[in-house]
Design a protein that fits this description.
With 157 residues, the chain is an alpha+beta fold. It contains three helices and eight strands; from the N terminus they run βαβββααββββ. Strands 1, 2, 3, 4, 5, 6, 7 and 8 form an eight-stranded mixed beta sheet that branches. β7 and β8 form a beta hairpin. The two termini are 17 Å apart.
């Protein structure tokens, strides 16, 4: 499995920083260089957005439960009261992050459509999608760490 081109990763990193700040008032900073997805160590909650087009793949964010609740409480106090509310808010986050990155990437050779976001809980078991290229980027916040992961099956020449 190969590493993704940084030109593909960067719009997702920038969108993650911007969306976390705008929607949740959370300062999220990448704390390390991107690594292959084999470094992925699943969190309690995974928010996953598949996409298809001239490339197929996914973007996902993995959160510890306490950080997910903290972020959601910053967005919508009442949503943090139930797991369903937390899940819905995390779907909205991944949807917005993916949409912003998609808009940037569409200015180049990458054209794809987003599917509906999915939520998975550690108790359900996280199954990684088999991809040919991937990257994981850990982010630090004042309330803990989360991981942004991106995987692709085909990249245009």
């Amino acid at each position: 499995m190969g590493m993704l081109d940084p030109k593909f990763i960067e719009p997702f990193v920038k969108a993650t920083i911007d969306v976390m700040a705008a929607m949740a008032s959370v300062s999220a900073q990448p704390n390390d260089a991107a690594t292959d997805i084999s470094a992925y160590r699943g969190g309690d909650i995974v928010s996953l957005m598949p996409f298809t087009g001239n490339i197929n793949g996914f973007v996902m964010i993995s959160f510890p439960q306490a950080l997910a609740v903290h972020i959601v409480r910053s967005m919508f106090e009442e949503a943090a009261e139930s797991q369903e509310g937390v899940d819905d808010a995390l779907r909205e986050l991944i949807n917005t992050i993916s949409g912003q990155a998609q808009a940037t990437l569409a200015q180049g050779p990458y054209h794809f459509n987003m599917d509906l976001p999915h939520i998975s809980h550690q108790a359900d078991g996280h199954e990684l999608i088999n991809v040919s290229q991937s990257a994981c980027v850990p982010f630090d916040t004042d309330a803990g760490q989360f991981v942004l992961s991106i995987g692709l099956n085909a990249v245009p020449a």
